[in-house]
Design a protein that fits this description.
Penicillin V Acylase, Chain A, 7-stranded antiparallel beta sheet, 273 residues, 6-stranded antiparallel beta sheet, NRDE family protein, alpha+beta, 5 helices
């Protein structure tokens, strides 16, 4: 997962509590399953990485949520580092040993061994607690609870002003200003944008200019690496209840072959228990 924009309104009594639009970028040869209810972890809804066994974004029937992006630092990559996707699935499955069940406590535990992983951003939440927390193992900042607002994460720390993040965060805010509850398909379309940044806007992350340019698009399409799927999520507070709607548009039709343009969709809706 390499670009996430989200709006967080923990004080909402009626209306959208949480809105997210996210792209998962990955090597095309890495096999994965699209979003589904996991058989071995009842109540867990997520895609699944078939190499590492974890996931990049998911949620549960009881209101837990997590998403992860990689931190781009190619010179620091270690082939022997543990898979980062289990940081998401461990939270969602409850396989973490945190008695409080609080998102911030989970991230504080993760941070104790954060250096053993390649770089990542981890967003962890509990919608029933109305708590959303963030941690990056390449940032000097401690794990922190997030205040209300519209945020973005790409392959640097939270709200780093890379062009695609700034643009998509603004477009999400604009969509929410225009409609109380924008259609999930609108949020999906917002993220499937192949526009690349000007060279003078590009960050310097230790890769070639050509690669930097290609990765500056919200929707990435290169011969070996690109956006594999887009996910939109809304959590609605209404009459004292929370309900979740999610839509995933995948470029993998289920056969683990990437097909452009992606049109394989799955939608889900459920009330939080």
């Amino acid at each position: 997962m390499c670009l996430i924009v989200f709006d967080w309104r923990p004080e909402a009594s009626d209306g959208l509590l949480f809105t997210l639009a996210a792209n998962r970028d990955e090597f095309l040869k890495r096999t994965a399953e699209p979003m589904h209810w996991w058989d071995d972890a009842p109540g867990l809804l997520a895609g699944r990485d078939l190499v590492g066994g974890g996931t990049w974004l998911g949620m549960t029937r009881d209101g837990r949520f997590a998403a992860l992006t990689n931190y781009r630092a190619p010179k620091e990559m270690r082939a022997d580092a543990p898979t980062r996707g289990t940081l998401v699935s461990n939270w969602l499955s409850g396989d973490h040993g945190i008695e409080s069940g609080a998102p911030l406590d989970y991230l504080l535990q993760v941070a104790q061994d954060g250096d053993m992983y390649n770089g990542f951003n981890l967003l962890v939440g509990d919608w029933t607690r109305r708590e959303l927390a963030w941690y990056c193992n390449r940032s000097p900042a401690e794990p922190t609870l997030l205040a209300p607002g519209t945020h973005g994460i790409s392959n640097a720390v939270l709200d780093t002003p890379w062009p695609k993040l700034v643009r998509k965060r603004a477009e999400l805010a604009q969509a929410l200003a225009g409609e109380a509850r924008p259609p999930l398909a609108t949020l999906i379309g917002l993220m499937r944008d192949p526009h690349v940044a000007r060279d003078d806007e590009l960050p310097a992350t230790g890769i070639s200019l050509e690669r930097e340019r290609a990765l500056s698009a919200a929707f990435i399409d290169t011969p070996d690496y690109g956006t594999r799927g887009t996910t939109a999520v809304q959590v609605l507070a209404q009459n004292g209840r929370l309900s979740v709607s999610a839509l995933e548009r995948s470029d993998d039709n289920g056969s683990h072959r990437v097909v452009r343009p992606g049109d394989f969709e799955r939608s889900f809706a459920f009330d939080i228990a």
